[in-house]
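hey all, quick one before standup. I had two proteins in the batch that finished overnight and I want to keep them in one place so we stop losing track of which output belongs to which input. First protein below, input sequence then C-alpha cells straight from the run.
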Amino acid sequence: MALPAVLRASALLFWPASLSSDYSPQVLPARSGISLAALVGFCVVVGVPALVVTCRRRAPAISFAAGLAALSYLPTANIFFASGIVLAERTLYLAVALPAAIAGWVVAWLATSRGLRPAVVAGALLVVACGARSFVRLPAWRDNRSQLLTLLRDHPESYRGHGSAAAVLAAIGDTAGARREYRIADSLFPSDPYLYGGYAIFLLGIGDTAAAVPLVARGKHSHTGDRMSLRTQFVLELARGHRAQATALADSAGRRFAGERNWYMQFQQ
C-alpha cells in the first residue's frame, strides 16, 4: 500500500477535498497486485527527486521545497522500511512546503506577466479557499466523539472506524451494536489480528464462546499479532474453565513480550 499512499498524500497536499483521520484499509483500498494508483504513486516517487534536480537553477525555491517534502515524508512512507502507519495527515506538515512554493511561483509569474492586481487577487482567493477548508474541518476535531462520527460519516469503508465504534458501544453495554460494528469491521478487513482478537475477547465476555472460537483459531494461524493471539487464547481457556492452560499461556506471553504480565494480572483480577 506504500505507493497508493504516496499518491493519496500528493493529492491531499494539492487538493485536500477528502480528508480522513484514518487511511488504513479500505479508505486506501488494500490490493495485493499492481494497480493504477500504485503506478501513479511510483511516478510521484520518481518525479519529486527529479523536480529537485531540474529546478535547482531555474526555480531554487521549488527545488528546496521538493527536497524538504520528500525528506519529511520519507520516514513514514513505507518505501524502505515499515513505519507502522499507512498515511497520516500530520506527517505532511513540512511537505506542504512544495505546493506552497509552487503557488508562490505562480503568483510571482502572474505579477510579472499580467500585473500586480491579478496576482494579488489569485493569491487572496487561494488563501481564502484554504482558510475556509480548514475552518470547515475544525468541528471534526472537537473531541473523540466528533472525530469518530465524522470518520464514519465521511468514510464508512474505514474498518478502524467501525472497530473503534464497536469498542465504544461495548464499553457502554450496547452488545448488539458492538457485535454489528465488529462484524462490519471484520468484513471490510479481516487481516488485522488486533481487530478480530478484540472481537473474540468481546464475544467471550458476553458468553458467546462458539462465535469466538473461529476468531481465536484465525489468530493461531496468523503470522502477525502473536501478542493478541496469546491474549485471545488465554481468555478462551479461562472461559472454558481451563485455568492451568490459561496460566501457562500467561507465563509464555510474559516471557515473550515485555509488559504483558501486567495485562494478564489485571484481566484475572
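OK second protein, same deal, sequence then C-alpha cells:
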Amino acid sequence: MPVGFFLVYHLYLQLYLHYGAEIYNNEVNSFYDSPLATGALVIVVYIPLLFHSLLGVILVFEKKGTPFPYTYFSHLLYWLKRIRGIGVLLFIIAHVWNPSWVRGLPVLGEPILNTFQAALQTRKRESD
C-alpha cells in the first residue's frame, strides 16, 4: 500500500514534464531536498519493495506443486505471472539504478537524456 501511494505521487510529479525542465526540476527537487525524504523513501518504498522482491524471487524458483492438477490455461497463467514478476523486478532495478554509485561506469542513458532535454528546450522556446 505505501509503495502504491509513492507510485501515484511519482507519476504525478512526472506530469510536470509538460511545463518544461525548470519547473519539473523545481518540483522534483522540492521533494528530495526535504530532510525526511530519504528516510521516508527507505521506510515506505525501499524496504517493502526489497521484501516483496526477495519473496517473489524465492517463490519463482521454489516451484511448489499444488494438490490439484492445472488445466493448460491455468498452467500458462502460472508461468506468465512469474515471468511478468521477473520483468517488473528488472524494470525497477533499471529504473532505480544510478551509475554514479559505481565509479568508472558511464551513464547508461546519456543519449536518451540528451534527446529528452533537447525536446524540453524546444517546447519551452515554442511557448515563449
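Flagging for whoever picks this up: The CA atoms of residues 6 and 41 lie 9 Å apart. DSSP finds five helices and no strands in the chain.
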